[in-house]
Amino acid sequence: MCRISSELPKPAGPPPRFLITKPGVYDGKAMGVSPGDTVGVQAGEYTYFRFRNFIGSASKPIVFVNYGGLVRVHSPVAQLSNVTFAASRYVVLNGQGDAQTDYGFRISAPAPGVSALAIGGKSSDVDVHHIEIDTAGFAGIMAKTDPAVNDSSTWRGHFTMYNVSIHHNYVHNTRGEGLYIGNSFWNEGITSTITVFPHEIVGLSIHHNRTERTGCEGIQYACAPNSQVYHNQVSQTGLSPFAKFQDNGVQIGGGVSGSFTDNEISDAPGVGLIIVGHRGPLTVHNNLISRVGACGVFVDTRPGSVPGATIAFTNCTVDTERKTAFRFYNRDQRNDVTSCVIRSQTPFDLTDGIPPIINENNVLGSGTVPPGVGFMKPD
């Protein structure tokens, strides 16, 4: 099994102050867990965990770690999720508790509609790393609190999720998205009796993850200004989409700005990289998109998109054979395509008018690629 490189050290130190040995519901406040404490989960087999009210601090997060080997969480029962965090802040889920195990938590949630790991309930400031999701009836890892009509504390402007870091995880065999981070309706909101808008995620980082064999997108993220998404490997997506146009490689959704760099996307039946209703500006640098069924890159605007915002595509390789490489439906924004390798029948599809586009130093077709052009495998 291939690995994504990691420079993170293996944890060392005294045994955890708290040690969990049974499945169930755990309340940090009731347990007396304090900022800086470590909560160990004894190696073994479990069915589910519900973690609530674990409140650390920015300098002293509460760390959950596998203790003594692999922690396997599996249940075929249709519960909310096999592992959930709610009403928690400044917490770390760390799968590096055993030097012999790359992913110290292995979570499986095969029941239809069930996500394996869910971070919600107005949780914030969460770091999740070295976790394996090997089955999910819906998303592998989900991080968001959906706005509720009857609870204004969940609405945008009333609640903000901060500093979410999802990294060095292996997610595969999900019926929905591999990583589902942020609500999908940043632009339009969610309407029942009234229209409410989902919270933003300020300080989102998604990196060094690997997703394979996902029912929908390998990674879908939204509501995230100045986000940093990099060094991810996404393959074999869209195998069982629950709706039309959910069979893409990676989806960047409404409210996003920041950077998307050093990622590899392959074997998607739909679009390789679909960017819908982003906020911008957005830098898409040094990405490889190959073997996709539709176009390589799709961009549009929706309510809330910023007119005149720039998407800069630099040093990307888009190999779609007979398909379209870039499809731009964002007529009031600027698209820069520079130093890219474009191997497709149609490099650019512009519709509904011609959006401003800068097309410089690109290699089209099967031409020789000079140094400094196209995707370069990151170290």
Automatic annotation (TrEMBL):
<keyword id="KW-0456">Lyase</keyword>
<dbReference type="InterPro" id="IPR006626">
    <property type="entry name" value="PbH1"/>
</dbReference>
<protein>
    <submittedName>
        <fullName>Parallel beta helix pectate lyase-like protein</fullName>
    </submittedName>
</protein>
<dbReference type="GO" id="GO:0016829">
    <property type="term" value="F:lyase activity"/>
</dbReference>
<dbReference type="Pfam" id="PF13229">
    <property type="entry name" value="Beta_helix"/>
</dbReference>
<dbReference type="InterPro" id="IPR011050">
    <property type="entry name" value="Pectin_lyase_fold/virulence"/>
</dbReference>
<feature type="domain" description="Right handed beta helix">
    <location>
        <begin position="244"/>
        <end position="345"/>
    </location>
</feature>
<dbReference type="InterPro" id="IPR012334">
    <property type="entry name" value="Pectin_lyas_fold"/>
</dbReference>
<dbReference type="InterPro" id="IPR039448">
    <property type="entry name" value="Beta_helix"/>
</dbReference>
